[in-house]
Specification:
- The protein is mainly β and about 290 residues long.
- The chain has a domain of about 140 residues.
- Strands 1, 2, 12, 13, 14, 15, 16, 17 and 19 form a nine-stranded mixed beta sheet that branches.
């Protein structure tokens, strides 16, 4: 197996960027999700609640600066507030973060539609991976959900798209959480969904659909990882990353084919066991 794409997301819940190479740090990929959007009470604001946040893109300009761009082409460059005073936040495992300059808050607030603040995580060694998400003593992560990296396979995506095509005329299964859907089912006709909907860090070609469910370790190039948990999926996967249109897929089909413990599942989360650089084209060895 080989890596077919890599992606980083400098700001949690904004659109990300494909990269050819990525540096693996103990808490995840360099420049991945070290920034987050929070409301005035310190609660995390994500595309789960504000779907059009996915229309904003963040990219790293250098080790300390990001650029956020909206769909009209307007952009703002933001420097990491190194040495700034932290303020309280209510993120699991993280009780404070450092605010960017006020112009960043104002710029984002106008586009989000509510007062928000852009905050930076100064020290990713302080936020632990929770034990219920596979964390071991010493494991830490950025503002990412649950674990440092998310890996998905093209083999599983191909199978999921085939299931969606086959089930297009079937009724919805009962008990789908309405909060996991962002709109009505797609009209007649089927266009395969993009794997980007799942917001992966690492995409590999894979050999057998959903074989990754049983992987306990992954080596990408020379960098070692361990699997922490399988990834449960939410409403963000039902938002088209290009058009921002909502729908029921892929949650509708995952609920039929891959639902247990009251959740739907696609992909696995990884914690680094070593550091180094991974690249598109790297060999992938699993255990």
């Amino acid at each position: 197996m080989r890596v077919t794409s890599l992606r980083i997301y400098p700001v949690k819940s904004l659109a990300g960027n494909p990269v050819e190479h990525a540096e693996v740090e103990p808490w995840g990929l360099a420049r991945d999700r070290r920034w987050g959007v929070f409301d005035e009470a310190g609660n995390s604001v994500t595309s789960r609640q504000v779907h059009h946040m996915l229309g904003l893109r963040a990219e790293p300009l250098d080790a300390s600066t990001i650029r956020i761009t909206d769909r009209d082409g307007a952009f703002l460059d933001v420097e990491a507030p190194v040495g700034g005073s932290p303020i309280p936040v209510g993120l699991t495992g993280q009780d404070s973060a450092v605010p960017a300059k006020s112009e960043a808050h104002d710029w984002l607030s106008r586009r989000v539609g509510n007062p928000v603040r852009l905050l930076w995580q100064p020290d990713p060694t302080q936020r632990p991976i929770a034990p219920q998400h596979g964390g071991l003593p010493g494991d830490t992560l950025s503002f990412a959900d649950d674990a440092p990296l998310l890996l998905v396979t093209e083999a599983s995506m191909a199978q999921l798209n085939e299931w969606i095509r086959e089930g297009a005329g079937l009724p919805d299964v009962p008990d789908i959480d309405p909060g996991d859907l962002s709109g009505e089912a797609a009209p007649d006709g089927f266009t395969p969904l993009s794997i980007v909907r799942f917001r992966p860090n690492v995409v590999v070609d894979g050999e057998t659909a959903f074989a990754e469910d049983d992987w306990t370790s992954v080596r990408i190039g020379d960098v070692e990882f361990r699997t922490t948990v399988r990834c449960d999926r939410c409403v963000m996967t039902t938002i088209d990353p290009v058009t921002l249109a909502g729908g029921k897929e892929p949650i509708r089909t995952l609920a039929r084919r891959r639902r247990w413990d009251g959740k739907t599942w696609f992909g696995i989360r990884l914690a680094p066991l070593s550091t180094g650089v991974i690249s598109v084209g790297d060999d992938v060895v699993v255990g």
